[in-house]
Amino acid sequence: MEVEEIRRIILDQEALLKDKLEREKIIEREYKYSISHNTAYLITGPRRAGKSIFAIQLARGKEYLRVDFDDERLYGIKANELNKILEAGYQIKKKIDVIILDEIQNVEGWELFVSRIRENYPVIVTGSNARLMSEEMATYLTGRHLDFQVFPFSFREYLKYKDVKIEETTRGIAKLKDELRNYLQQGGFPETFKFNVREYLTNLYSD
């Protein structure tokens, strides 16, 4: 894969992410984490729980390079081609403080690349638990990564997303109980607020 093609993919992904962040309601997650050292930060958790957005929140205030490997145009990229991502990134940005590699487990041998560049950058890696917590990762990144596990919205985050203010009045408590019933029925996956809840959760569970 050529550097120019990777550059175009990164620019396309940045435009799509910008549109998403402007279009959708994004809340601050309650995880009290920060990135302050050059190492690998592994964000795991179930699909659709908000790992990608949390990665961006972790990098807030820093110049970050983000690549989403769920993009079909990156399918088949080899580990020994991953350095081209840095080259393409520096063609786009003058400075890179943080690197975000979304769903990097789609690239076989990614652990070696991350192990090398983590010496120079904080590297945020997202993916599913089973595919990231592999024997290869344990071999190449032992003692060289910090793990974050992201779950769907807590009830407090759910209330924040729904703009529900907690009031210690009879009406306020009744409203809170009503929202708790809704939360217990639909859970905290962010996209349940956009689709038919039962159908979406059934499909998510099945997948």
From TrEMBL:
It comes from the Archaea. Residues 38-159 form the AAA domain. InterPro entries: AAA_14 (IPR041682), P-loop_NTPase (IPR027417). SUPFAM superfamilies: P-loop containing nucleoside triphosphate hydrolases. It holds the Pfam family AAA_14. This is AAA domain-containing protein.
